[in-house]
Specification:
Keywords: NAD, Oxidoreductase. The chain contains 15 helices and 18 strands. With about 450 residues, the chain is of the alpha/beta class. Strand 6, helix 8 and strand 7 form a beta-alpha-beta unit. Bound molecules: nicotinamide-adenine-dinucleotide (NAD).
């Protein structure tokens, strides 16, 4: 079996042959990835169900179709993306050809997390292939069934010379990171991201970090409560609350909260029936340890559970839960919840809510529900977050035309669609100059005098 360094060296020498550069090679690989998705939809949905109890609809919507759409979008646009981009010139460069050439970095490393284990490896891979790189893929070991499926399928469909899946956990990944990569694309927690940055620093490797955090949802200025509750419940409890862009906590005034609670109960019952544990559309917490972590957070909260709260360890089940009567010191407001628990904190005005958000790390997503467009704009203009969506949750990340990524502690860099292609490309600023107009060019040569300044 090849060692990590042998794999990386092999990919590097393959990259140097230039095989990944032609448009046709990239299109062939992207088409092969599309075939992988189409031929194996049932196995993929099965693996996601094994790992997370993921309902088929959620698997198709948030993993399979997202990857498929992104591949098709890249196939349809790649020729344009690869075309050199000519830029404006000035008087001194008027007769030069000045353009940006997007070139692959070389051998890139893509490290994924377990909550969308397929999407978080394959969406970056689409960008890496489109940009002409070789890639090492390191899926999360926690979502074991999907990890194994990726390791089986990728070599069957894609070039084994250019793309390699490496399995393993933290120790394996640390060893892998001792090698020099030309770009690292990491999705996961903030704490591990620090180690990734440190490892990258040793090789001066550029890094994209797709991290998490606490994405707030603000409800102010009046809304259609029933619709707002349905959208909120869907976004929060999708994938059992284990989405990096799930609304983590809710801020609204006490009157809105009181109107919202029966509407949330009604939405939950409408979606999942009287016993969510028996409902096929409710996923599970990924592992025992993650289950304990969410339950421990809930246990440390001083708030009042008004909806849900039931749980079964053996089944890794936690009921969709809502907690009220908390203040800013509550355990549920200190770290990302990453489970089906929604704390609601009452703050009377949107200005207080904006201050609350701004006193914390910049979130990956920020949601505002309101009938008042000026209030939505006010929140947008007075806060900072990776992405923003009004009157719904999560859906903004399904568009390949919008960049997806964090800011500050929620990450650096972005991807999806053209943004993935750009993330995995070096933007080489090029100037083609001829030998003409030397008399004008000579104005810059020493010995300097006032006449040099007219150059
Ligand atoms: P995880 O435990 O699966 O870890 C992510 C990857 O890092 C895995 O491949 C794992 O093997 C590797 N890893 C773990 N420990 C390591 C170490 N010490 N050194 C090197 N590599 C190591 O996932 P996680 O970190 O629990 O992911 C959950 C977090 O990811 C949440 O905070 C969530 O918000 C965030 N997330 C962000 C996005 C996004 O797009 N921004 C998407 C999904 C998840």
């Amino acid at each position: 079996m090849e060692s990590h360094s042998e794999v990386v060296a092999r990919l590097r020498s393959v990259f140097r042959t230039g095989v990944t550069i032609p448009l046709q090679f990239r299109l062939t690989q992207l088409s092969a990835l599309l075939s992988l998705m189409e031929d194996n939809e049932a196995q993929i949905a099965d693996a996601l169900h094994k790992d997370l109890g993921k309902p088929k609809f959620e698997a198709v919507l948030s993993e399979i179709d997202m990857v498929r759409n992104d591949i098709c979008y890249a196939i349809n646009n790649l020729k344009t993306w690869m075309t050199p981009e000519y830029v404006g010139t000035n008087l001194a460069t008027k007769f030069d050809d000045c353009f940006i050439r997007r070139e692959p970095f070389g051998v890139v490393l893509i490290i994924g997390a377990w909550n969308y284990p397929l999407q978080l490896i394959l969406l970056p891979l689409v960008g890496a292939i489109a940009a002409g790189n070789c890639a090492v893929l390191k899926p999360s070991e926690i979502s074991q069934a999907t990890e194994q499926l990726l390791a089986d399928l990728i070599p069957k469909y894609l070039s084994k010379e250019c793309y390699v899946v490496m399995c393993g956990g933290a120790e394996e990944t640390k060893k892998l990171l001792q090698n020099k990569f030309d770009h690292i694309f990491y999705t996961g927690s903030q704490s591990v991201a620090r180690g990734i940055l440190r490892a990258a620093a040793d090789h001066l490797t550029p890094v994209t970090l797709e991290l998490g955090g606490k994405s707030p949802c603000l409800i102010y200025g009046g809304v259609d409560i029933k619709t707002a509750a349905k959208r909120l419940v869907w976004a929060k409890y999708f994938n059992c609350g284990q989405s990096c862009v799930a609304p983590d906590y809710l801020l609204c005034d006490a009157e809105t909260r009181d109107a919202l609670l029966p509407a949330i109960r009604e939405a939950l019952e409408g979606f999942y029936g009287p016993d969510p544990q028996r409902c096929q559309d409710v996923g599970r917490i990924v592992t025992d340890q993650h289950w304990s972590h969410v339950m421990e957070l809930l246990g440390r909260s001083k708030g009042r559970v008004v909806i849900g709260g039931e749980s079964t360890r053996e089944d890794k089940y936690i009921a969709p839960t809502v907690v009220v009567d908390i203040d800013e010191t509550d355990a549920l407001l200190q770290e990302e919840i990453f489970g089906p628990v929604l704390p609601i904190m009452a703050l009377e005005t949107v200005e207080e809510a904006i201050d609350f958000v701004n006193a914390r790390e910049s979130p990956l997503a920020l949601y505002v529900f309101s009938d008042v467009p000026q209030l939505v704009t006010k929140v947008l203009e007075n806060t900072r977050s990776g992405g923003f969506c009004s009157n719904d949750g999560i859906v903004h990340m399904t568009l390949p035309t919008l960049p997806f990524g964090g800011v500050g502690a929620s990450g650096m860099g972005c991807y999806h669609g053209r943004w993935s292609f750009d993330t995995f490309s070096h933007k080489r600023g090029c100037m083609f100059r001829g030998w003409a107009l030397e008399r004008i060019g000579a104005l810059r040569y020493p010995p300097y005098s006032e006449t040099n300044l007219s150059w």
